[in-house]
């Protein structure tokens, strides 16, 4: 199949940014409408999740064996889950409802996924920021010891979420079975993701196994940034980055193939 | 110029791969008006989607040196849950056109009134056709791809389409696919017939139509 591009890169980039901008505006209007909170739901929704989980964990007296402050533990843990889980879930089966938009040549399958990933990352990030800032100003949470480390951990988790979203989104375009598998997988990955435990609490045999799971590294990084030397964390930036890079590559291949085979129906 | 060279499209079906378009060659120069006859299911809409770039050919080459519209079809290109105006906003953003500048024309042409602020979901097919047509006229393409849509409207809509397309935009190219002969016979300067995946050229529009009639029987 011949598919030539004589459009200069800068022009293509301009078109793609324009398309993603248009898709973002459209997605916000279709998802949240213009009534009541409107697009504020974008981060109020994940905030409610995190608040609920924080309340439950604090209320249940989930003190663990350490003296870790439960609010900061829950906020860092559950926010990170929302980050990767929402990206992937929103991209699962994202093509059918957007099918009419693919009538426009410059709207490609990848743009649909990128738009949804951007929105989810923005929502989860704002929710994390607002909650942290609120608890810190109320004195329920200590400010992070190392902001750069927090940013790096959050950034890597967002990249992980994006790459997972491409895999799940591209995968569901090939087989709807992926969607059926994704929901139980997401549910089971939550307790394994490091959100509700610290690697250091595990016996060393389990530590090795758990550290194969990429998002565990991201959560540990976040907590290293928040708690500093008061806790022992275990993570490898290189391992998490490598996982993200490989998943991104595989995801892009899946999405490209999905775009090539798409049948634009109404 | 829009140029298709040896374009083939196959779709997977339960009975294996099915060839919908078979080695199609077609050239459309700027300002030409081309009609394509074909029965239901002959692959007309697939061909139009391929020319527009919404779908890619399985093999072969499509070269576009002039801008082509999206396929103006019954459904398609709209978000049913968005209002007519939000759809216009989206399309203006995608094609980089000023929304405020495009709005008066769309309001005037569609005569949809308050319905422009209602979800497209509630539109009749005639209303959708009016909106689809107005939106594509608001963007200004070099070549318009029309998949039956003008046939849906009433005669007033039909007259307005003819005025916008054949009087105000005489210089543009046009590709119309239809099983209805009138529009092609009246406005196209050459015609093809799509049958069994092959596109055949004919000397005149009338000759193409006669050939199409023998295929239908």
Write a concise synopsis of the structure shown.
With 266 residues, chain A is an all-alpha fold. Chain A has helices at residues 9-32, 41-59, 70-91, 95-98, 109-138, 147-174, 177-192, 204-210, 214-227, 237-261. In chain B, the strands form two sheets. A five-stranded mixed β-sheet of chain B has the order 5-6-3-7-8, with helices on both faces. Chain B has a three-stranded antiparallel β-sheet with strand order 2-1-4, covered by helices on one side.
Structural notes for this entry:
The complex is a heterodimer of chains A (266) and B (217). Chain A has 266 residues and is mainly α. Chain A has 10 helices and no strands. In chain A, helix 3 packs antiparallel against helix 5 and helix 3 packs antiparallel against helix 9. The longest helix of chain A is centred in the middle third of the chain and has 30 residues. Chain A starts with 8 loop residues before the first helix and ends in a 5-residue tail after the last helix. The mean pLDDT of chain A is 90. Chain B is α/β, with parallel strands linked by helices and 217 residues long. Helix content of chain B is 37%, strand content 26%. Chain B has a 5-stranded mixed beta sheet with strand order 5-6-3-7-8, sandwiched between helices. Chain B has a 3-stranded antiparallel beta sheet with strand order 2-1-4, covered by helices on one side. In chain B, helix 3 packs antiparallel against helix 4. Chains A and B meet through helix 1 of A and strand 4 and helix 2 of B.
